[in-house]
Amino acid sequence: YRISSDNKWTFSLRSVGRSNLHVAASKEALSVEKFSSEYEAVIGIECHVQLNTATKAFCSCQNEYGADPNTHICPICLGHPGTLPMLGQEVVRKSILAGLALNCNINKDSKFDRKQYFYADLPKGYQISQYDIPLCYEGYIDVVIPDEGSKRVGITRAHMEEDAGKIVYTGADSLSGSQSSQVDYNRGGVPLLEIVSEPDMRTGKEAAMYAAELRRIMLCIGASNGNMAEGSMRCDVNVSVRRKGATEFGTKVEIKNMNSFNAMQRAIDYEYIRQCQLIEDNNESEIVQETRLWDENTQSTASMRRKEGLADYRYFPEPDIPDLHISEEFIQSIKESLPELPSEKRKRYMSLGLSEYDALVLSDDEDIAAYFDRVLNSGASVKQAANWVMGDVNAVVKSEGIKFSNLKMTPETLGDMIKLIEESVISGKIGKEILPRLVNGEAEGKSVREFVDANGLIQISDEATLREIVQKVFDANPSQLEGYRNGKTKLKGYFVGQVMKESGGRANPKELNRILMSMLDA
Fold this sequence. Notes:
The chain is 36% helix and 20% strand.
């Protein structure tokens, strides 16, 4: 170790030999389908979720992402001798909240343990965690697998622990090629909830959907921001392969360094193919218990370190933190504060007649779901509200880079516009035309009806008026009218377009079609 002139701890590591095993295979071989009839993957996930408490787990340092390096640190989270960690109540509350949302049992009597290992980003030389008595245990979540239905994935345990610091490589994006490695201890001591699944998943798609559902739940209950790019949610995947019908597990390989659900699916699929190909080539002995890193550039995994056996972390009870005793009243008060969970939202939306796909999209983000619910409460029909929120309004939100909650157009305004379309006061075409103006707040202080009326956008449904417009179009296009009446019936579309143009797009399409046909065939 050395201390640089700017008072940052740095250290240098010599690169150890990495196994860069690449399975030689044709494009045909590198497909999941080639092996899926004979082999199955067994997948479990360990997900570390940063809790968004105001302070760290065991001290009063601010829990904030993006601050200048080593500015949110103190003797306690740096592990100085003589300091005493104190557990924050909000850490426990949010952990129990998450456990209940995951359908877990809650241990009323729990404790913390010291997990002994040495990394440069772990200043104490141990991590405060939970070993044999986790706070939450034996839960499950139901995961929607698109086009495949629903799958229940068991939760083995969810326990509290503290995060480590972050190593920053200078001169390169990774250890290889870097000049030095610097440590930012701002993250050290940030509260984590480690959620360990049962090995219930069988494909990369199932694993990705499980992780996505986990994130939805954490966002819904307000336990974490779930930002994978910032490291607020980090998933390590354990993958093994066995022949279908076998009961024993194969050799487990851990995969790290996946920063999106899409990357998780691709990493698992690659690892499944790699292991299957080794088995097929009679090289099963080359599948060893190890940690592999997913490389986004090469779309492959590479060995990081081998695990010769189970790590001996020399756990023992944390002597500086008393045992944790939780009352039934405290658990019940938290249970009563649980919001409607994503799975419950999906069921409610589907009970209203929406498809599974629509329900999944709308419940994917709490911001979208809250906006959609208010549109429904304003009286708009379910399907039309879903179409507008998922389609045109969502497109505006994405293009502007804002949230639904920041839209100047209130959900009630959108609901009123949808009702005007359903009542044939305006057409869907006019609705699409005025939406950008509503989004910009042009109708603020007035109703949508007043806005369209003031702008001359009310749909023309009066029969006499429509007949007058149609006759005007006929008079201006006598040759086309004669052609239609001589059998060129495709000219109907031409007349529809001309009438819509003459009416400024305000003609009621249904009424126009009826009147136009009666006048064309007269």
